[in-house]
Structure formats: structure tokens, C-alpha cells
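dumping this here before i forget
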Amino acid sequence: MIDVEGVTRRFGAVTAVDDVSLTVERGTIAVLVGTSGSGKSTLLRMINRLIEPSTGTIRVDGRDTATLPGEALRRGIGYAIQGHGLFPHWTVARNIATVPMLQGWDKPRIDRRVEDLLVLFDLDPAIFAAKFPHQLSGGQQQRVGVARALAAEPAVLLMDEPFGALDPIIRAKAQEDLIAIQRRLGITIVLVTHDMEEAIQLGDRIAVMDGGRLQQYATPAEILAHPAPGFVERLVGGSDRPFRLLSLARVEDAAETGTAQGDAIAPTASLRDALAALLWRGTDSLPVAGTAPRHITLKAILGQAGRR
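structure:
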């Protein structure tokens, strides 16, 4: 869906992005992660030409973005930022309708789209459509910001630190919601974060940036199991990496035939969550929800961690 080929961006004598190439497959989430000044946000903004590349080529759905009018390109790509950027004097409904109005959609079509998105984000249209941003919680504002970015039905969504202003509990829920909505709509997402845990949680592939250069571009499992020497290795940590890898495996991957006492754990829960549940309950085995009698054991989880 997105091809970045040999892209560089210079600001005077400073090279912010240095000869980066990567491909984002259709219907996946690619996360750009790195410290402040690593070039990740600059690279993101070159995709929709908020910043123009100095050299190199970016293609979206096979089209060279340099050949398209910038305004038309941006109207076809969703964009969500930290702080949400909602217009404070506009209602939730009008905020969401911003791009469809610019594109000349008729009112019935806009109204249907706004209502559909509010329902999708668990915001009752009868309650939230007429509210103003200051009447919403931080998590609700974040959902409206993403709904606005999706209003014109883009195939690509760019997100720059979208959850950075949220507290940890709301942030975790927002991450889960994003994954669910992305899977449902099949859109392609490129997301910037400085948080490696968030990158592991969200990304189908992770691009690690440092000093304007791409250090590694791979799946979360590959980066945790085989980090590139140097910066990436330091970023993902050392001794706890096998247990962080447990967050990428599911209970069903290690469940065994058998029974156990206690509340059942979902087969789709991560092995990291299962480990936490076992330790919290002080037991070495938990039943797994489902029709067949299965259980997950502490020994099996630790065995998975050892193999990783």
C-alpha cells in the first residue's frame, strides 16, 4: 500500500531522514518508533506531503505522491495527532464531518457517515453528536479524533503519537479499540510512537529509527528475538525479552488437554497475561475457556519463554 524508496529529508545542514526505504503492506499496521529527533514524525509527514522529501520516492497505492496535488492527496489519507486537534467551537458531529464537507458530500451521506462512526466508536449519536470537545473525556476526544480521520473512508491512516496524552488505563483501551477497528475496516495504518511497548502491542511490523536512519524493520517477534546490534538491542532491553515475547503468543498456543480449578482464561489471551493470572492466583494451572477440557500451566508458559 505504501512504498518508501530512498527517501531523505534535509533541513539546511541537518539530515532529519537519511535514505530510508520500507514497504507497508495493505491492511497492516506499521509502527515507527524511536527517540525524539530520530526522524520518525518527519518520515510520517512525508507520506502525506505535509513535509516534502528532499530526495527519494513515496508511492501510495502505486501512485507517486509527488505527481498528485498535495491537498487532494491529504484529503484521501486520514491523519490523527496527539491532542486530537478537534475544533473547540464545533460539535462532535461537525468535527467528524470536516473532510467529507470539504469533499462536497451531500448532507444525508455526511449524516449517515457521522452516525455510523459514532456507533463504531461506542459513542451514542443521540448523546454525543451535539456535544462540544470540552464536554468529552480525554478518551472520548481521542476516539472522535480518530473518527474524524476516518470520516472520508480513507484506505490509509497516519497517526502521530495519538495516545501520548492519555493516562495508562485509557491508553490501553484506546490501543485495543484501534486494533479492533483496523481489523474490521481493513485500513492500512502507519503510527508513530516513542514507546516500544506500544509498538509491540500494535504493530504488524516495526520500523526502528535512530539519527534519521532506519535501524531495523521487522515483525515484533523478530525484533525481540533478533534485535539489530546497537541501538535496537538497547531499545528492546536484555534479560526480560523472553517474557516480553510472551505478549505475542496466545494461550491457545500452549494449552494442553486436561482440567484445572478456577475461573477460565480466554484462549485468545496472551501468555504474558496468563502468566500474570497464574502468579496472582498462586496456582500452577488454569482452565482454558472452550468446549474441550484444556488447561494452561506455569510449566508450559515458562517453557515457551525459554524457547524464545
